[in-house]
Amino acid sequence: MAGLTFAHHILLPKPSFFLHSPKSLTKATNGFNTFLRRHKSTQTISSALLELGGVQISKQDVVRDEPTNNVPDLIFTKLGLQLHRRDNHPLGILKNAIYEYFDSNYNNQFNKFDDLCPIVTTKENFDDVLVPADHVSRSYNDTYYIDAETVLRCHTSAHQADLLRKGYSNFLVTGDVYRRDSIDSTHYPVFHQMEGVRVFSPKDWYDSGMDGTLYAANDLKACLEGLARHLFGAVEMRWVDSYFPFTNPSFELEIYFQEKWLEVLGCGVMEQEILKRGGKTDNVAWAFGLGLERLAMVLFDIPDIRLFWSTDKRFTSQFTKGQLGIKFKPFSKYPPCYKDMSFWINDSFTENNLCEIVRGVAGDLAEEVQLIDNFTNKKGLTSHCYRITYRSMERSLTDDEINQLQGNVRDQVQRQMNVELR
Ligand code: DAH
Catalysed reaction per UniProt (predicted)? Predict the structure, then answer.
C-alpha cells in the first residue's frame, strides 16, 4: 500500500510512508532538460494547447514515451480542467467559502493564487520544502514525472518557497495536485489542495512575551479553529502532534463529524531553513495544507470522489455558487460488477502500477481495486488476488462491456507488469 502523504492519515485515509521502511527509488538517469526549455521547442507542433498560469502546455510537453516519463494520457486530459475555479462546483464553492473566511478575518491581506502551473521542478516540489533525498514521495511509484527534473506537483506546498522569495507574506494557493495511488471511493490520481502561509516579524510577537515559534503556533491554531467553525459550525475539535518535513512543530486538526474523528488538515510552524532561503531570516511563519475533496465530500455528502469529475447534469445542477450547506441527493445507484484476478507477483510489482493500468483501461468506470488474497507458496512465489469493482456513476454497464474491460486489464497487466496470471 503506497500512498503519497506527508503525515499519518492526513489528507487522505492512508497510512503514512513514514511508518514503512523506505522503498528503493528508481533514480532517473537522463536529462538536464527542464520543462520550460523543452517546452519552447515543442510548442509549435501542437494544435491543442492548454493555457495554465500563463504557460501554454501541449500534450507532448507532458506525456512522452521515455523511461523518465510516467504520465498517462488520462492524466493529461485532467490538466486544464481546474474544477476549483468553477463557482458552481462543490470544490469552487468550498474554495470561495475559505477565501471568505480569510478575507473577512484578515482584512483582505491574503494574496490568493489559484492558477499556478501544476508543472513544477523536483526542486520546487521536494527540495525547496526540505523533503529528504530518500523520501518515498519522490519515487516514480508515487509521483508523476515528466522528466527526471520535472513533475506534476504532488502538493501545493511546491509553491511556498517561490512565493516567499517573490516577497509574499500572507497567501493562499489552491490547485490540482497529482499522485499515483490506489483506487477506491476517496482516492483519485488528481485532487485539489489549498495551502496557506502567514509570515510574522519580530514586532508581531515582541509584546506577547512569547518566542516567535510559540506565538506563530498559537496564531495558527486559532486561525484554523475559526476556519473549521466557519465551514462546519460548532464542532468538537482536537489537535494531534504530527510530522512533516517542512514544519516544526507540526500538527493535524481533527473534527468530530458524524460520530468519527476526521483529519481535516496538516499544518505547523514553517522550518526556519525555508524562510532563510526565501530571504526572511528574522521572521517566523506558519503554514497549512488541506485537501478540498476530503472536506467537500463531508460538507456536501458526496459519496464517491469520481463524482467531482462528472459532467452529468444530475450532479452539476445540484450545486449553486455561494451555497455551502447543500446536500447532494444521489440520483441513482447502478449495480456494481466484481471481477477477480490472481497472479504471481515479481519484485517490481506495485499496487500503484496495477491501478494505473486499470484506470488506463476502465477510466472512471473503475470504482475500487482491492487486494483480497495474498499468500506465498513453498517455492517462495507470492500470489495476489485483486477484486476490481466496475460501476458507472451515470448508467448501467452491460456484461459484454465489463468482460471486455476485464479482458483488456488482464492483457495489459500481463504485458506491462510481466506477472504470471493464474
Ligand atoms: N503538503 C502536505 C501534504 O500534501 C500538507 C501540508 C502539511 C502542507 C503541513 C503544509 C503544512 O503547508 O504545513 O500532505
Answer: tRNA(Phe) + L-phenylalanine + ATP = L-phenylalanyl-tRNA(Phe) + AMP + diphosphate + H(+)
Domain with CATH 3.30.930.10 in the chain: 52-317
SS percent in the chain: helix, strand, coil, step 5: 35, 25, 40
CA of 245 to the centre of ligand 1 (A): 9
Measured from the Cα of 6, ligand 1's closest atom is 14
Probe ligand 1: pick from 173, 179, 288, 295, max atoms within 8 Å of CB? Answer: 288
* DSSP three-state, residue 168: coil
Q: How far is the CA of 267 from the centre of ligand 1 (A)?
A: 6
- Span 290-328, pLDDT tens digits: 999 999 999 999 999 999 999 999 999 999 999 998 999
Bridge partner list, 368: 389
Residue 394 confidence (pLDDT) above 80: yes
CATH 3.30.70.380 residue ranges for the chain? 337-421
Give DSSP secondary structure letters for 328-339.
P-----PPPEEE
**Among protein residues, the one whose CA lies closest to atom 9 of ligand 1:** 267
| CATH 3.30.930.10, applies to 52-317 | yes
Domain 337-421: state its class.
alpha beta
- Whether the model clears a pTM of 0.85, i.e. scores above it, the answer is yes
The pLDDT of residue 5 is 62
Hey, what amino acid is at 332? S
Separation between Cα atoms, residue 71 and residue 37, nearest integer Å? 19
Nearest ligand 1 atom, CA 11: 14
pLDDT tens by residue, 104-136: 999 999 999 999 999 999 999 999 999 999 999
